[in-house]
Amino acid sequence: MLKVTKYDLIESVYQNTKCEKRVVQEVFESLLDQIKESLKSGATIELRGFGTFEPRLRKGRKKARNPKTGDHLSVPPHYIAAFRSGQELKNALWNLPVEEE
């Protein structure tokens, strides 16, 4: 499966808009910072046609294991960033060819 990095996205927007690359990078970084700050404040971010980012509470566990060391530990309840794709994105991905292993 193909991996696209932040650099690749910035380069693509730069090529498609012909804006200065520095400006594209600043806007992109600002957008990511705004998404991060909104999630940190507990807000849900809805990008119509694309999807929704939201903070989601994960239950803690009394019995957990560090897979690297095997040590047993407890994990308190904590928030994670969750993404739900919008209908347009779901429809766009529906007919992707399935890669056979």
Automatic annotation (TrEMBL):
Tell whether DNA-binding is among the UniProt keywords. yes
Q: Which example biological process does GO assign this protein? A: chromosome condensation
Record keywords, A-Z? DNA condensation, DNA-binding
Signal peptide residue numbers: none
Q: Which residues form a coiled coil?
A: none
Instruction: Provide a Gene Ontology MF annotation, just one.
Output: structural constituent of chromatin
| CDD domains the UniProt entry points to | IHF_B
**Pfam families, alphabetically?**
Bac_DNA_binding
Summarizing the function annotation, the protein's role is: Histone-like DNA-binding protein which is capable of wrapping DNA to stabilize it, and thus to prevent its denaturation under extreme environmental conditions.
Question: Which PANTHER family does the protein's record reference?
Answer: DNA-BINDING PROTEIN HU (PTHR33175), DNA-BINDING PROTEIN HU-BETA (PTHR33175:SF3)
Instruction: Tell me its family.
Output: Belongs to the bacterial histone-like protein family.
The identity of this protein, by name, is: Histone family protein DNA-binding protein
Q: Which organism is it from?
A: Treponema brennaborense (strain DSM 12168 / CIP 105900 / DD5/3)
